[in-house]
Every structure is written in structure tokens, then in C-alpha cells.
Design a protein that fits this description.
The complex is a heterodimer of chains A (185) and B (448). With 185 residues, chain A is of the alpha+beta class. Helices cover 37% and strands 38% of the residues of chain A. The chains are: A alpha+beta (185), B alpha/beta (448). Chain B: Its EC number is 2.4.1.198.
């Protein structure tokens, strides 16, 4: 059963513990809070912009209004179709870790990493040209680059810490990082 | 915890490791000593190749290699406002109390100081170079420096000559400028256990082979010294556009067996080259403070140098022979140095250098400057704008406009991403277990 553990201004962290065939499947969800007000604002902005463009091109009439509404709706839909609403880390002990990205359109992208390929889960400070935030990544055997657990969402460390701790335990890195995780918690 | 009692300093410059040089060394050693004094030190620089992101150095020195690519002479492209978001994030997440910018050439330093003042942080600036007043480049740089230093809390120069130069260029009140010389890591630059053979005299030159470092002087000095002293041999370390001229000189005077050209020398190899010589030759045409001289003296070499900039302030008279930047005078100075060689005791020289120049002393003196900077009163935007207006009839207005836009952008960032949304980072305590540096989160993070 899902139970809300933590919530911030933009994200909700949920944790599932499911017993499946004598195996404990540990699922950590990060849900992006939908902001309907912003959706409405974006739609209004696109609608007005397309109205103005069509007015400039065709001259204002009913057809132009209809076209602009359709065009605006299509733009908003395509924008939200690629919008991430939820990202999950599914830990299957002794098997591996599955990273999931859920989109607004209903599409899901899954990436399974076998446990023997995971060298170490790391809490990393991710620096971009304009900002710096925490990220949870996996060091994978034979891969030069880190695999990010949450590509799209920039989460607070208080949400990443329990997931990192669970990954440490699942990948057999619990002992060397136990002291750290207790301090993180 | 000791860290909380000290200052939280952000060092900003385009010049840092893996690059090697005077500024890079200064920032690194100063940071290490400040960490030992109980302060928190963070360094911000641009990315070097694939060295990007957050890295940790000795004693947990945290370095932000911001993924901005350098575009000219290791400098990032001047964007004025491009660095504001990342700068603000770093200042908040590291709970910085003071920003220390290094080197007037660094665009990242100028931008960081500008943004820091906009956000109300106290700033300190260290100038490591001397500039002219006549050429176009210097005029432009001096105007930029005037803009940056118009609102700086305190400034540091590496020599009295450098202070004079900075005060003249920037119009900064002299009482705001402190002189703190560079130092040398004497543990790294020790003399050879045995003195090199006195059958032949080895003169060592280690510098970038560029006009400013007096490579053209070397072209005229080396053949003359070689003619006068058949037992003198030269070792030239370094690379640059003037290397071709030195190679030509070597061919022309058939000095292949007496002038050894090493090319670019990694910093780790400098000591091994220095200890193979008797005299260190510095032919710089301009120098605020020459660290190379300190390194050579620490290795027990007698120094011959041009009397330029802050060089006469660096070493006591019995450890250096000064000459005008003229080939004839340089040859005379080398002759004098050769005659003085029997009186030189490398170990004694090294011990004296140990007492004279210490990074711990530099850190303690810098700490005093930080204390003074933090005691400076906070001024509102209007008070600060009046300072910028006094920078010139046209320039003053441009500077004011730049600062107003910066302030508005900062206000916009405050609305878009409030300071409360930026997480403060945990303190890192070096704790070795399985070769890892482990994290210890603050009480506020624990309660969260």
C-alpha cells in the first residue's frame, strides 16, 4: 500500500513495500504536483498568441478563432504529452533496479539494471551552467557515465536520501555506507 | 563545530587547478591554510576539459567547476549576467559569508564580485598583476577594474608596487588596500642533499617564453655570458612563442651543448630542475611578485633578476642580485652572482626562506582582512550607485545601468526560485572508511 512519506512544494514522495513471491519489492515514487493554474495560464497565453498571429495573417473572423483554439489546444497537448508526472525506482532484491519515467500522456519509459552491474549508488551534486542540485545516480560496471535515477525532476535531498539508503542495502553496499545513511536520515 | 565559528569563504577565479601558475597556487595554498584555521572554503572556477561539476581536493576543499567553457586565455566569455543564477545558488547552498575574487584578468571573478555585491555579500579582491596605463588593453582593463573595485569591501595586493599600481588604476582609497605577499611551500622546494659540482656553473631559467617574461633579453644575455664564462651552462625550462628565437640563438652561436632546452615543465618537476643549478635567472619585464624567485631561493639558488615591479621587495639583498632590464646590466649581474657563489649556503638559505615566507602567515594576515571586510557597513542600492556614478561621465552611467539590471534580475530570481527552495549543503568531514569521505549532515537537515 502506498503511503505518503514526504512532500515539498513541487514533489510528493511515496514508498511501497510489496511482498511478491516471497520477495520484497521496494518501490519509491516521486510524483510531480500538477499545477492546473499554470496549465490554464499556458493555454491562455498560447491561445492569445495564436489569435494574434492568425489575426495578423488572415484578419479576425470565426474561423480564425476556431483555428487558434485548435492550434492552442494542440500545442498545449504536445507540451504536456512529454511532461513527466512521476518517476519511480523499483528495487527488486537479488535481481536489480528498474527506473521508470511516467509521462502525462500515459507513456512509460522503463530501464532495468541488473544488480551485479551496479557498482555503487551515489548521492551526487549535479552542477549545470545555471544551477546546482542533488541527484541520485548509479555507478554501472562498464559504463563511463553515471545513470541518473531521476533525470527530469530536481529533488530535495531529504527525498533522495531514503531511496539512496534502500539502494545501498539492495546492492550490498549497506555496511560501508551505513554510517552515512544514518546521518543523512 | 569549529567551522561554524569561522568565516565561510568563496574563492572565485578563472585560474585554478588543473592549470598551474602563481594565481592557482595562491588560491590553493591559501584555501588549505584557511581550512586549517577553522574556516569553510569553497572554490568556484570554470570547467577544465572534462573536469566539470563538484570536486573535492585535499582536506575536503570543495571546488565547483562550473560547466562554462573558456574562450580566451583560460577566461570565460564575459556575459555580465549569465553567472548570476549559479552564483546565487552556490552562495545560498554553501551559506557563504564572504566572497574573495582573484586576478583582474578573470572575467568570472569580476562577474562574481558584481553579483555578490548585488546580493549584499561582503567581497575581497586580490590583484596579482601589474598593468600599464597607455595601451588599449590596459585602458580597457583599468576601467573594468575601476567598476569592480568601486564597491569592494577590501582589496589585497601581493606587493607594495602592486598596491601603488592598483590604487592608481582603480581610484580605490589606499587605506582599503592591504599588502600580503605570496609564499612558497618550502617543504616542496628543498635544496639538494649534496651541492651540485662547482666545476661548471649551471644557470637555470624556468618561465613561459613570452615577451613579458623577458625572453628577448635571454636571447642577448645567454651568448654573452657563454662567451665570458666557458664553464657556464644554461638550462631553459618553459615553452611559448619566443622559444623559436632561443632555438635560433642556440644554433647561431653553436651553443647546443651549453644551452639545454627542456620545453614545458610540469610543476612537479620544477624542484628537480632547480636543484641541478647554482643560479636562477629571472628576466621578467613586469612582475607584481615573482613566485619563481621564492621557489629558487627555497631550493638554495642565488637569484639574478631584473629590477622590475615588486621583485626588489621579494628577497633580502644578500639572496638576490638585481639588474636593469638591459642585456649589458644583466651580464654584469650574472658576473657578480658567479663571484658570490662560494659564499652561498643552500641549506641556510632554505631555512631563512622557511621563516620569511609561510602560507600560514599569509592565511593569518588574510583572515584580518576578512574580519575588516565583514565589519564594513551594509549599503543600500542608491548609496552604491553613487559610487559607480563617480567612475566617469559616460562609464559611470553605464556601470549604474549594469548594476540596476543586475539588481532587477536578482529580484526576479528571488521570485522565481526563493532562497528557501535552495537546499543548504551538509558539512563534509573527512572520515576515512574504505577510502571514502563521508558526509555528516547539519542539525537542520536532521530535523528535516
Amino acid at each position: 500500500m502506498s503511503n505518503i512519506r514526504l512532500a515539498s512544494a513541487r514533489y510528493i514522495y511515496m514508498h511501497d513495500d510489496v511482498e511478491e513471491a516471497c520477495k520484497k519489492v521496494d518501490t519509491h515514487h516521486i510524483v510531480f504536483k500538477r499545477r492546473n493554474f499554470w496549465v490554464f495560464l499556458v493555454y491562455i497565453f498560447v491561445f492569445l498568441l495564436s489569435m494574434k498571429t492568425l489575426d495578423f495573417c488572415l484578419g479576425i473572423d470565426r474561423t480564425a478563432v476556431l483555428w487558434s483554439m485548435l492550434f492552442g489546444a494542440r500545442l498545449v497537448y504536445s507540451f504536456y504529452q512529454t511532461r513527466v508526472v512521476k518517476e519511480s525506482v523499483v528495487i527488486i532484491p537479488a535481481f536489480g533496479v528498474q527506473l521508470e519515467t511516467h509521462f502525462w500522456s500515459g507513456g512509460v519509459v522503463r530501464n532495468f539494471i541488473p544488480v551485479d552491474k551496479i557498482l555503487k549508488p551515489v548521492l551526487n551534486e549535479h552542477l549545470t551552467p545555471f544551477t546546482c542540485h542533488w541527484s541520485l545516480a548509479l555507478v554501472i560496471h562498464g559504463k563511463e557515465e553515471l545513470v541518473l535515477a531521476f533525470k527530469e525532476l530536481h529533488l530535495p535531498v531529504k527525498m533522495l536520501a531514503p531511496i539512496w539508503k534502500a539502494l545501498c542495502v539492495a546492492t550490498g553496499r549497506g555496511e560501508s555506507t551505513d554510517r552515512v545513511s544514518s546521518e543523512v536520515q | 563545530m569549529a567551522v561554524e565559528k569561522g568565516h565561510r569563504i568563496l574563492m572565485v577565479s578563472d585560474f585554478f587547478y588543473p592549470n598551474f601558475g602563481g594565481v592557482e597556487n595562491h588560491i590553493y595554498y591559501l584555501s588549505q591554510c584557511l581550512l586549517k584555521l577553522g574556516h569553510k572554503v569553497v572554490v568556484m572556477t570554470h570547467a577544465y576539459g572534462n573536469r566539470s561539476g563538484v570536486r573535492y581536493m585535499t582536506n575536503g576543499l570543495k571546488v565547483y567547476y562550473v560547466p562554462w567553457r573558456p574562450f580566451l586565455m583560460q577566461n570565460t566569455l564575459p556575459t555580465f549576467y549569465g553567472t548570476l543564477p549559479v552564483m546565487r545558488t552556490i552562495l545560498i547552498r554553501e551559506r557563504i559569508s564572504l566572497v574573495h575574487g582573484h586576478q583582474a584578468f578573470s572575467t568570472l571573478c569580476h562577474e562574481a564580485l558584481m553579483h555578490s555585491r548585488t546580493m549584499g555579500y561582503k567581497v575581497v579582491f586580490t590583484d596579482h598583476s601589474l598593468y600599464g596605463f597607455a595601451d588599449v588593453g590596459s585602458i580597457h582593463m583599468n576601467k573594468v577594474l575601476q567598476f569592480t573595485l568601486a564597491d569592494v569591501s577590501q582589496a589585497i595586493c601581493v606587493s607594495h608596487t602592486s598596491k601603488e599600481n592598483t590604487v592608481l588604476r582603480s581610484g580605490l582609497p589606499p587605506e582599503k588596500v592591504f599588502v600580503i605577499p605570496n609564499a612558497v611551500d618550502t617543504a616542496m622546494f628543498k635544496p639538494a642533499p649534496e651541492r651540485p659540482s662547482s666545476n661548471e656553473i649551471v644557470i637555470v631559467v624556468i618561465s613561459r617564453l613570452v615577451y613579458r617574461k623577458g625572453a628577448d633579453l635571454l636571447v642577448e644575455v645567454i651568448p654573452e655570458v657563454s662567451r665570458l664564462y666557458p664553464n657556464v651552462r644554461f638550462i631553459v625550462g618553459g615553452d611559448g612563442p619566443k622559444r623559436v628565437r632561443l632555438e635560433e640563438m642556440r644554433e647561431k652561436h653553436s651553443l647546443q651543448d651549453r644551452v639545454e632546452m627542456l620545453g614545458a615543465v610540469p610543476h612537479a618537476r620544477v624542484r628537480s630542475i632547480l636543484i641541478s643549478g647554482h643560479i636562477f635567472l629571472n628576466s621578467s619585464l613586469t612582475e607584481a611578485f615573482c613566485i619563481a624567485i621564492l621557489e629558487a631561493a627555497s631550493c638554495g639558488l642565488l637569484t639574478v633578476s631584473t629590477r622590475v615591479g615588486g621583485v626588489p621587495e621579494v628577497l633580502p639583498d644578500d639572496m638576490i642580485v638585481l639588474a636593469e632590464p638591459d642585456p649589458g646590466d644583466m651580464v654584469q649581474a650574472i658576473s657578480k652572482a658567479i663571484s658570490l657563489l662560494p659564499t652561498i649556503d643552500p641549506q641556510l638559505m632554505h631555512n631563512r626562506m622557511k621563516k620569511l615566507y609561510s602560507w600560514h602567515d599569509v592565511a593569518r594576515r588574510t583572515e584580518i582582512v576578512y574580519d575588516r571586510a565583514l565589519r564594513c557597513s551594509n549599503q543600500n542600492l542608491l548609496d552604491r550607485l553613487s559610487r559607480y556614478l563617480s567612475c566617469g561621465a559616460l562609464a559611470g552611467k553605464i556601470f549604474c545601468l549594469v548594476m540596476i539590471v543586475d539588481f532587477l534580475l536578482w529580484c526576479l530570481l528571488q521570485l522565481w526560485k526563493p532562497a528557501g527552495d535552495i537546499e543548504e549543503v551538509p558539512e563534509y568531514i573527512p572520515f576515512h572508511q574504505d577510502g571514502e569521505i563521508l558526509q555528516s549532515f547539519n542539525a537542520d537537515q536532521n530535523s528535516a
